[in-house]
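Postdoc handover notes: sequence design on the structure in folder B. Input tokens:
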């Protein structure tokens, strides 16, 4: 099983979430918990998790919308749904949207652990192919290997995070404030706005991606989708 893999638990019941965190954490993985869809989206699209444990009913929406969004972005993270007894129709829809498995509440933690481990083993066997290809670019965020026209490009950690945000949100304008908040998450109270402009310029220059990484004046930046 992968070392230092991350499981994202999206569950608004704090007691249940705490129990899940304790049951699933071990030396080979870290656990991150989210109580709503907003924080889950920020965590998932920035960190490339090994697996997502997702409650269907959340305070700010339906977890199935997140399943649909993840699969529409062609992301292959294993997703296990947490379902209440009366949501069989939602489970069926979730599986049709691309969820990998489900567990009905109340459930045995030992059964849940077994299902999580099964999905992680499946993911490990397919890790070789988990690469984003766009035209002459190849981005492997698991191994941190990035190529343009077959030539490997060395990116800084900030540039890697920036590229991931742009490439996983192709065709969507990401605001400057949102990018700053999600790139510099070390608790710094102030980040010079020029830092983002510099990071964009360096990434654009390194990848020779002026036709892909567009400045949306007055708003932010976008990886243009129609170049695919």
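Designed sequence:
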């Amino acid at each position: 099983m992968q070392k230092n893999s991350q499981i994202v638990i999206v569950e608004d019941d704090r007691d249940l979430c705490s129990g899940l965190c304790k049951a699933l954490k071990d030396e080979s993985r870290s656990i991150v918990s989210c109580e709503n869809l907003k924080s889950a989206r920020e965590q998932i699209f920035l960190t490339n998790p090994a697996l997502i444990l997702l409650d269907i009913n959340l305070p700010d929406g339906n977890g199935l919308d997140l399943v649909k969004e993840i699969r529409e972005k062609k992301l292959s993270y294993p997703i296990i749904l947490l379902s209440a007894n009366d949501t069989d129709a939602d489970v069926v829809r979730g599986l049709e949207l691309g969820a990998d498995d489900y567990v009905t509440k109340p459930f045995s933690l030992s059964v849940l652990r077994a299902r999580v481990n099964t999905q992680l083993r499946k993911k490990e066997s397919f890790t070789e192919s988990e690469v984003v290809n766009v035209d002459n670019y190849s981005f492997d965020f698991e191994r941190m290997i990035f190529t343009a026209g077959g030539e490997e490009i060395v990116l800084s950690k900030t540039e890697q995070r920036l590229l991931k945000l742009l490439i996983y949100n192709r065709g969507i304008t990401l605001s400057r404030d949102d990018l700053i908040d999600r790139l510099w998450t070390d608790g710094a109270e102030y980040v010079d706005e020029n830092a983002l402009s510099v990071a964009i310029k360096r990434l654009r220059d390194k990848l020779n991606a002026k036709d892909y990484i567009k400045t949306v004046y007055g708003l932010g930046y976008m990886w243009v989708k129609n170049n695919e």
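Context for whoever picks this up: Helices lie at 14-24, 37-47, 63-72, 88-97, 109-126, 157-168, 176-183, 194-207. Don't rerun without checking with the PI first.
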